[in-house]
Design a protein that fits this description.
The complex is a heterodimer. Chain A is an alpha+beta fold. Chain A is built from nine helices and four strands. In chain A, strand 2 and strand 3 form a beta hairpin. Chain B is of the alpha+beta class. In chain B, the strands form six sheets. Chain B has a four-stranded antiparallel β-sheet with strand order 5-6-4-16. Chain B has a four-stranded antiparallel β-sheet with strand order 10-7-13-14, covered by helices on one side. A three-stranded antiparallel β-sheet of chain B has the order 11-12-15. In chain B, a hairpin with a 5-residue loop joins strand 11 and strand 12. In chain B, helix 1 packs antiparallel against helix 7. The radius of gyration of chain B is 30 Å and the shape is elongated. The chains are: A alpha+beta, B alpha+beta. At the A-B interface, helix 4, strand 4, helix 5, helix 7 and helix 8 of A face helix 4, strand 16, helix 7, helix 8 and helix 9 of B.
């Protein structure tokens, strides 16, 4: 075969590359921390659209008069609309929200301040939502491991499942770090992206295992596992690459359109997803399956 | 082996085009000024409030340690629904989260309401309802409003519960009634009032937030604190309606907004426009890539993909009678995008396999047959793994009485299912997308490919990925 690549022989190199990338990202995370949206931590975020130029000192004083000194005020662009954002670490009553709306309109009459969006959430509700997300991920991972274990028992289902989960963990960590590095607060979008990549990454890995199973059946029993895996990876390479290209086109287009129109809610969804798609391709081709081959070489299945 | 007829391609093509046309544009009949919807199109999709703007609020008891029953939450729902309808808002969504003692309400805010004040609306909906039992049902006009004049016998705090039950009446038949249980505080006043009114065959009227909800004639003096309202109910449901209204006015706790979010319609509209634009551009790019790279199977894949998208839209808009229309949110759109990616993948896997077989020297018929056969289980496993993810999401984030929550119940004891949210929407569209992937991306696209390969002018290996002769 021409144009073949020995994935299995290079597995350690790719493992080191991945470890370095994840390690650097982790250090970045420890230094800069993780921003959490109020979806998870609770609190208040009120946004106002306006006209003209806002005197920020007045806006800040108004917000602090109503909500206390803990309130922070900044000007930002959300969905291509300039807004004044007022945030607070605690939730506030709807009375207070109305009070703030009125105070803003009164203090800055020339700017026509209109409430653009508001969010207020008790901290306990944020924690509950976060717990549910963890449950969903754990439950999905458990079911997937069982499914892969059953479907691929001929080639050592449990170890295949475990390495598929390794690829999954790699991709999910990478998505998480994308949020951290781009300073996107974790919110509903974070959950949706994590789950999308969960399904996508697993799909990629399973297709390769499927090919290995098929080749194992066809080839002489004495063929070393490394050769079977290399052959399977080379055969599935174009498919996995092209699927990643088409999915990448879809997600990338959304990201570009969102960037051009400055739709922040969509950018924070599409950009981490794009990284997840690339990572999903890489992890199944260069990481999890070759590493699995190495593991099987060292732990050959007992003869029946 | 039975050969697929040439006509299959055209039959499948016509079916897909018909599904795509009707699900995108719908079918409407115009009869004078009246337009009837025969089939719902894409414009009938009910958009989530993250797209069209609106309010999302979660109510719960102010004092979180208080005991909350399902009937209490039902009462909260009833009063909020009454108030929403009073405001002219009928397309709201409301769920009770029994495990967490919450009621979640979402309602849109129409763009023609310039002065809509969401914070005030949230406040108003969550106010404690005023329940009053009054002597007689006399009213007077005051400031243009009809107000009751009878003296107050009981208020909400005097009523323990109201329940719809069947009792045997004097004729020996079962009759639906509302059974009222009063608190200690209300027993004496109610006994006195019923003594007075039963003597004169008068009534005691029941008022909720200033509107009369019932005015039963008093038959007997009631001293035990348990009364029944009978005679006016056709069914148990009618009785339950009144019981809910009474319960909503006698809640043992006050409620407040635990969380609230509002999105102005302009913010949402821009997000939707961006998503639609991105969708169209992405589809065109993928179509070009597939046709250039995979040639004939690529073209077939694009047709199947149109069918898959149309199927997803139809499943959301309520096109199929059996599936209710579904509220589509931004994460829901993400689910459709992912399912399209998986749909393309099914076609890529098949086309790659066909190409491999052609290049190893197989005939076109054999290459298509073997390519389809060898790729099926790979596609199957990949799709089932996505179905697992979708089902877990719908179970964890779906309504407690939904089918998926029921199935997962034994596993969800530490995180009880609660209310439908945006993540549920993602799971639903993903699930629907994978189903249509099996119909379109696997079955329809293979049938079409086998069928077009019967045409003589299309029997060139190059068209299937072979090397150019």
């Amino acid at each position: 075969m021409k144009n073949t690549f020995d994935f299995v022989a290079h597995r350690k190199m790719f493992a080191v590359i991945s470890a370095v990338i994840l390690g650097v990202a982790l250090i970045f995370n420890i230094i800069f921390g993780t921003a959490m949206d109020i979806t998870f931590k609770g609190g208040t975020l009120m946004r106002y659209s306006f006209e003209g130029t806002v005197d920020m000192a007045v806006a800040e004083k108004t917000a602090k008069d109503v909500l206390g000194n803990a309130a922070t005020v900044k000007q930002e662009t959300v969905n291509n609309t300039p807004v004044i954002s007022v945030s607070l670490v605690d939730e506030i009553s709807t009375d207070k929200q109305t009070e703030l709306d009125d105070a803003m309109a009164k203090a800055l009459p020339d700017n026509k301040m209109v409430q653009f969006s508001s969010n207020s959430l008790q901290a306990s509700m944020g924690k509950r939502f976060f717990a549910k997300c963890l449950v969903a991920v754990a439950l999905a991972a458990a079911f997937l491991l069982i499914y892969v274990g059953l479907r691929f028992r001929k080639i050592g289902g449990l170890s295949a499942g475990a390495f598929a989960l390794l690829a999954l963990a790699h991709d999910l960590l990478l998505v998480y770090f994308t949020f951290v590095i781009f300073r996107i607060p974790l919110n509903d979008n974070f959950v949706a992206v994590m789950l999308t990549i969960l399904g996508y990454s697993l799909n990629d890995t399973i297709v390769v295992f499927d090919r290995i199973r098929e080749n194992r059946r066809k080839l002489d029993e004495k063929t070393p596992i490394g050769d079977v895996v290399n052959m399977s990876l080379n055969q599935s390479f174009v498919r996995t690459r092209n699927t990643s290209i088409t999915t990448g086109i879809a997600v990338g287009t959304i990201a570009v359109v969102a960037l051009v129109l400055r739709m922040d809610a969509i950018i924070s969804f599409a950009v981490p997803m794009l990284f997840g798609v690339i990572s999903g391709f890489y992890s199944s081709m260069f990481l999890s399956v070759p590493l699995w081959a190495g593991w099987v070489e060292k732990h050959p299945a007992k003869k029946k | 082996m039975k050969r697929t007829s040439k006509s299959v391609f055209f039959i499948v093509l016509v079916l897909i085009v018909a599904l795509a046309y009707t699900s995108f544009f719908g079918i409407y009949t115009q009869f004078g000024d009246r337009t009837d919807t025969v089939i719902r199109g894409a414009k009938d999709i009910r958009w989530g409030i993250d797209i069209r703007g609106g309010v999302d609020v979660t109510y719960g008891p102010v004092d979180e340690s208080v005991a909350v029953t399902e009937a209490n939450l039902q009462g909260v729902e009833t009063i909020i629904a009454e108030r929403l309808i009073g405001k002219g808002i009928t397309d709201y969504e409301m769920y009770s989260d029994v495990a967490n003692h919450q009621v979640i309400v979402r309602f849109p805010w129409s763009s023609d309401e310039k002065d809509f004040d969401p914070a005030a609306a949230i406040e108003e909906l969550g106010q404690t309802a005023q329940l009053e039992f009054r002597m007689g049902d006399a009213t007077e006009e005051k400031d243009g409003k009809t107000v009751p004049t009878g003296s107050i016998v009981l208020t909400g705090k005097d009523v323990a519960s109201a329940e719809a039950v069947f009792i045997q009446n004097d004729n020996g038949t079962q009759e639906p009634v509302v059974q009222l249980t009063l608190n200690e505080s209300g027993k004496n006043a109610f006994a006195e009032a019923t003594k007075k009114q039963s003597a004169s065959k008068g009534t005691i009227s029941i008022w909720l937030d200033g509107a009369m909800i019932s005015n039963p004639t008093v038959q007997d003096t009631i001293t035990g604190g348990i009364a029944t309202i009978s005679g006016s109910f056709e069914t148990l449901t009618d009785a339950a309606d009144l019981a809910n209204l009474i319960n909503s006015g006698s809640l043992p706790f006050a409620i407040e907004a635990k969380s609230s979010g509002t999105v102005s319609p302009t913010m949402g509209e821009k997000a939707l426009e961006a998503m639609v634009l991105a969708g169209i551009i992405a589809f065109v790019l993928i179509a070009v890539f597939m046709i250039v790279y995979y040639r004939l199977p690529g073209l077939v894949a694009v047709i199947a993909l149109i069918g898959q998208i149309a199927g997803s839209i139809a499943a959301i808009s309520g096109y199929f009678g059996v599936l209710d229309s579904f509220t589509l949110t931004l994460p829901g759109i993400a689910g459709i995008v992912l399912s399209i990616g998986i749909g393309v993948d099914a076609n890529v896997i098949t086309a790659e396999r066909v190409k491999e077989e052609i290049r190893s020297g197989k005939t076109i018929d054999n290459a298509i047959r073997l390519g389809s056969k060898n790729s099926f289980w790979s596609i199957f496993d990949g799709n089932i793994s996505v179905v697992i993810v979708a089902v877990v999401l719908m179970g964890v984030f779906g309504p407690a009485d939904g089918i998926w929550s029921m199935l997962l119940k034994p596993l969800l004891f530490w995180a009880p299912a609660s209310t439908t949210g945006s993540v549920y929407s993602f799971g639903y569209t993903l699930f629907i997308g994978v189903i249509f992937n099996f119909v379109m991306g696997v079955w329809a696209s293979r049938a079409m490919l086998r069928s077009v390969s019967r045409f003589k002018f299309l029997r060139k290996p190059w068209l299937y990925g072979g090397v150019k002769e």
